Amino acid sequence: MDQPPLTHDHEPLGLAPGGSLVVSLALALWLAYKAARAFVVWLDHHSTDHPTQEETPMTDPRPRPLRTAASWIGGTLALVSGLVGAGVLTDTQGSATAAVINAVLVLLGTFGVVIATEHKVTPVSDPRDTDGTPLIPAPEPMPFGFK
Q1: Contact 102, 108 (CB under 8 A)
Q2: Which residue, of 27, 40, 53, 144, has the fewest CB within 10 Å?
Q3: How many Cα neighbours within 13 Å face the side chain of 19?
Q4: Interior CA angle at 86 toward 82 and 88, to 5°?
Q5: How far apart are CA 114 and CA 87, in angstroms?
Q6: Which residues contact 133 (CB under 8 A, 6 or more apart)?
Q7: Which residues of 32-68 are buried (b: 16+ CB within 10 A; e: fewer)?
Q8: pTM of the predicted structure, to 2 decimals
Q9: Cβ-based neighbour number of residue 80 at 10 Å
């Protein structure tokens, strides 16, 4: 069994070149998020000028699924742009990822509108009420109330 001679020039096992940059970037983003969140909580506790509920109707405690979805989508697209800017993804990969995200959004939006509104629309070809009774057009009114 012939083995190559051992040399002192071998690379140590570990992350491939550039891998530590990705880990460092992820750690820096996580720390920035935690610091920003801590600052907002601190500022909220130490602020004396909190607006009333009537002044800020967009911050009421009701669930806002569209705002949440938009935040996630915007964050994902910003992350893709950041990864392209950092060199982790190429321009082509970033564009393809953003295009897939946008295509999925268009499909979900289209099907969501159809599903949410289909039961609220009366088809013109066979109009019926909620009980299934056919709807008939109202008689034409006579001018000046004559019959």
Answers
A1: no
A2: 144
A3: 5
A4: 95
A5: 40
A6: none
A7: eeeeeeeeeeeeeeeeeeeeeeeeeeeeeeeeeeeee
A8: 0.41
A9: 20
Q: What is the 3-state secondary structure (H, E, C) of 64-118?
A: CHHHHHHHHHHHHHHHHHHHHHHCCCCHHHHHHHHHHHHHHHHHHHHHHHHHHHH
pLDDT tens digits in sequence order for the chain, 147 residues long? 566 666 665 555 554 555 566 777 778 888 888 888 888 888 777 776 665 555 555 566 667 777 777 788 888 888 888 888 888 888 898 889 888 988 888 888 888 777 777 777 777 777 888 788 888 877 777 777 666
Q: Please count the residues of the chain.
A: 147
Q: What span, in angstroms and rounded, lies between the C-alpha atoms of 147 and 138? A: 15
